[in-house]
Structures are given as structure tokens and as C-alpha cells.
Amino acid sequence: MSLNLSRRNFVRLTAAAGASTMLPRFAIAQSRPDIVIAVQQNPNTTEPLNEIGNTGFRGLYSVYDNLIATDYANGMKTKPGLATEWKRIDNRTLELKLRPGVKFHNGDTMTAEDVAFSFGPERMNSKDAPGWAPTRYIWGGLDSVQIVDASTVRFVTKQDDPILEKRVAGWCSQIISKRAYTEAGDWKKWSIIGVGTGPLKVVENKPGEYIRLEAHDDYWGGKPNVASVTFRVVAEVAARIAGLEAGEYQVISDLPPDHFDEVGARSDLGVVGGPLFNHRVVCFDCRNPLIAKPAMRQALSLALDRQSLVDSLWGGKVGVPRGLQWAQYGDLYNAQRAKPAFDLDKTKELLNAAGYGGEQLMYRIANNYYLNEVPTAEAITDMWSAAGINVKLEVVENMHNPDNAAMYDWSNSGLMLDPVGGIWRLYGDTAYQQGNGLWKNDEFNRLGGVLNTSMDQAERYKAEQSMLDIYDTIDPPGFILHEFGAFFGKSNKVDFPFYPDLAMDFGPDAFKIA
Predict the structure, then answer these.
(1) Range list of β-strands (E), 219-258
(2) Percent composition of the chain: helix, strand, coil (DSSP 3-state, to 5)
(3) Could you tell me if 461 and 225 are in contact, meaning their C-beta atoms sit under 8 angstroms apart?
(4) Using H for helix, E for strand and C for coil, what is the string for 99-158?
(5) SS3 string of 412-456?
(6) How many CB atoms lie within 10 A of CB 56?
(7) From the CA atom positions of the chain, what is the Rg in Å?
(8) What are phi and psi of 350, to 5 degrees?
(9) 243 pLDDT more than 60
(10) Mean pLDDT value of segment 274-286
(11) What is the DSSP letter of 360?
């Protein structure tokens, strides 16, 4: 009898064998089990200001809390978090009452000083602060956080702010321990093991290998249902699935749609996930003379059959969105906006208008940093070729190398559930492209100012739609491919809600043990 092993099966078998010698097997008989989650990648640090992306949202959500929380079960509305109530004093001032008796992971009780320090000049709100640059899109307009009394703070902005409450509820607004930060001595040491108030505390962080979190039993929201959670980096999909089937991992991330049937066929396993508040996009580098022509950029977008991408690579589990917006924007969402079109005839007209003569364009991607990134890039490169556009695909570590620049991969999240946290955060005057000279549009920036400061929602909607027109057709800095999805394989002995910003909630009311 011969045994014929494919590479995939070999990786799965060896991964399962190796995992059994390293990890404790999941024991449901434990009152509070140790959970192991196999992930494709972890955040490098545990400082949320450093980790503004999917891996940070997933791994750090349960380490920190905000003053105002997001109610995922109730239409993403705001609800009390570390603050029990809040009120507007005027268009530039928000006052909040702090929840009494909240404990940090180091045992300290949260005070108004911790809140003010979290947003203060030592950490965030000065040009010399280590958290200055990554927080400008949220807190660029912050003047100060003032201590009114032991249980009251006020956020004061430099100009009228229509979404101040959403900023307080958003990423980069988590509350940290002033004493723990100060005692760490420097930003790098602090960033390895940060101290918050969430249901889990960081006890060990080995970048590239794992992050281990333990239950914070003094959590103000109640004792977690787990003893610990370890996010272990397992790069190969096959190895993650093998470990899940062997019982070494209770949850695995980044499960591709073509493996759903395999995991779902087992009675003891299941799949959780769906579309995120995130769109996969391709961005332009307008330093390239051809790409600098709007007609060329429009042609590159119109040449793509996006529906075939989501059908063939995502099994229809994600869709093609109506522009760079999300339905959770509420009255700022335009449900009538057209989806990106596929039109080969118009593509050819635009190529002629741009004077395109077959010159090669470089398209840079990472090696599956995004789920299905490489097969997606190969598919759209083939579509461009069919339309007569010569594109060379290059897999690199640095997608922003300026030599022969043209296009590169990215994903766009809708933070704060407002276009300030979407199109303006991503493409505004302090964002990557404009900040590095890859693209610039003065009218877009003027409209962004209206979006940021107007208290008139109708005026904000009008500005947002004009910004979307610039993005879609007038002067595109990039184009949307499709909704981005995230899917977890899991043991049916654990139950947890899927949050569309990829946050994993280990609070006692969210992560349940069968």
C-alpha cells in the first residue's frame, strides 16, 4: 500500500503533529478554558495607536475600552463604556461622566488623569508625541482633554466638530493607564505590553509568534468566560485547518471561501464571518506620467469585471459596493449611487484619449497580506491584458517603491461609521497619497473641510457625494475592487459574534463556552 501526500496534506499532517507537542489540548470540562486562535498575522505591538488595521482590531479589541462604546447588537449605535453619560456643551465641547471603580490590568483604579493622559501631549497630542502622526485623521482638531473634577472630563476641539462623540467611540480613543505608560520608560517598551481596562490583559507578546492574553477578573463588565486567549501565528491555511481539526486551535482566522465546505462538513466545526466595513482597493501613483492622466485611471477601473471576481474567488460571500461608503453611515449613505462599472468599449475610448500606446505599467502587491490577494491580482491583470493594457504584476515587500510606480494594493475601512473616518481619512490632505505626493486634489480637500466641521448634515452629505464623484470618475486616487470579507473556522464548543470591523470580543456577554 502506497501513501501519496500532496504538499497541502503534508503541511497539514506535520502541523497537527507539531502542534500536539506545543499546545494544551482544549478541555471543555475546564470551568474556564484556555483558547488558542491560529491567525495569519498578529499586530507587532499592543499599542492601539500603532495598530490601525485588521490585525490590531482583531487582537486588541478586548484589551482596551473606550469612554463611549459601540453597540454591535443594536445597529452600531453608541452606548456607555468607561463613561456612563455624556452631553454636548457646545459645538466644540463634549462633557463625559466617568464610570466609578473601573480597574486597570495593573490593579489601579481609572481616574480622570488617566483619561486626560491618554489623549495628552506625552502620548498623542503634540508634534513630539509618538502617537501624533497616526492619530491626526481622528484627533487633528483636538485642543485638549480637560479635567473638570475627579469623575468628569471635557473634550475641547479647535473647530466645530459634528462627530466628536464618534471620535471618542472610535479606534485610537482607548483609555490607557498613565502609571503603566510612565513606568515603562519609553514608547517601545510600553508598546510590547500595554495596560488597559478590557476583559483580557496582555501577559506575553512575541512578535511574529504569538500574543498571550489572560482574563482580567476585575473587569467592570463581569468576569470573562475564558482563562486565557493565545493568538498564535500560523501562516499556512492548511496548517491552520489541520490544527482546528485536531482540536489544537479552537478558532482559526483568514479561512478562504474554497475551504468552507471542508470545515463545515464536520459536525464539530463551523464557519463564522461575512463582509467587513472594509473594501479592497487598488491605488494609483500619479508620479507616473501615464497614471497622471485621469482618462488612463478611469480606463483601468472600467476594464474590470468585479462581479466575476466575487463570484469566482469569494463564492458570492461578498459583493460590489456602491462606492467608497457604507450603509452604516445612515443618512449620509447614498443607496442610489452606482456600483463601479464594467465597460470594455468605454475602456478603449479612454485609452485612446489618454494616448496609451502599450506602455508597461507596474502593479505591486504583497504576498497574500489580504485574503485572496495574489489570485485576485492575477485575475485583474488578465482582465487588463484582455482590454489591451500591459500590466506587470510584482509581489514585493514594499509596495510603494517609486521606481516605475503605477498601482499598488490597499484596503479601505470605514472607521467611526462616518465619511470623515472613510474617504477623508484615507485620501485627505494628511493621508498617505497626498502626504507623499502620489496624488493631490484641492477641491477634494476643500470639501473635506466641510465634512469635518459643518454641523449641517445636509451640507455634509452634499460634500461627501462630491468627494465620491472625484474618487469615482473625475480624478480617481484609486478604485474599489469589492467588499472585503473575513471568515473564521471554529469549534462548535465556542460561540462568538462576528463583528464587521473584525474586532474579537471576549467580554462575558459575547464569547461563550458550550
Answers:
(1) 228-233, 251-252
(2) 30, 25, 45
(3) no
(4) CCCCECCCCCECCHHHHHHHCCCCCCCCCCCCCCHHHHHHHCCEEEEEEEECCEEEEEEC
(5) EECHHHCHHHCHHHHHCCCCHHHHCCCCCCHHHHHHHHHHHHCCC
(6) 22
(7) 24
(8) -70, -35
(9) yes
(10) 95
(11) -
- Cβ-proximal residues to 242 (8 Å cutoff; 6+ apart), any chain: 11, 12, 13, 15, 16, 19
What is the DSSP code (8-state) at residue 236? -
First to last CA, the chain: 41
Please say whether the dihedral angle defined by the alpha carbons of residues 164, 165, 166 and 171, taken in this order, is positive or negative: positive
State the Cα–Cα distance between residues 122 and 187, nearest whole angstrom.
10
Each residue's pLDDT tens digit, 97-121: 999 999 999 999 999 999 999 999 9
How does pLDDT run across 284-333, given as a tens digit for each residue? 999 999 999 999 999 999 999 999 999 999 999 999 999 999 998 999 99
Residue written as grid cell 447588537:
73
Phi, psi angle pair for 86, to nearest 5°: -155, 160
pLDDT at residue 371, rounded to an integer: 86
The grid cell for 37 is 486562535
pLDDT grade for 30, boundaries at 50, 70 and 90: low
Residue type at position 92? R
* Cα–Cα dist 331/105, whole Å: 39
Q: What is the dihedral of CA 374, 377, 379, 384, to 10 degrees?
A: -160
Within 10 angstroms of residue 133's Cβ, the number of other Cβ atoms is: 12
DSSP string covering 14-74? HHHHHHHHHSPPP-TTSSSPEEEEEES---S-S-TTT--SHHHHHHHTTT--BSEEEETTT
User: How far is the C-alpha of 381 from the C-alpha of 392, rounded, in Å?
Assistant: 8
Q: What angle do CA 275, 278, 284 make, to 5 degrees?
A: 135
Q: Which of 214, 284, 348, 244 is nearest to 25 (CA)?
A: 244
- Please state the φ and ψ torsions of residue 302, each to the nearest 5 degrees: -70, -20
The whole-angstrom separation of Cα 371 and Cα 240 is 14
